[in-house]
Amino acid sequence: MIKSKVDINYDEVVIDVRGVSKSFGDLHVLRGVDLKLYDRENLVVLGRSGTGKSVLIKLITGLLKPDAGEIDVLGQVVNQLNDRELRALRQRIGFSFQNSALYDSMTVRENLEFPLVRNKRNLTRMEINKEVEDVLDGVGLLQTINQMPSELSGGQRKRIGIARTLILRPDIMLYDEPTAGLDPITCLDINGLINEVQERYNTSSIIITHDLACAKMVGDRIVMLLDGKFERQGTFEDIFDTDDARVKPFYDYNFTEEN
Question: So what CATH class is 11-92+170-252?
Answer without folding.
Answer: alpha beta
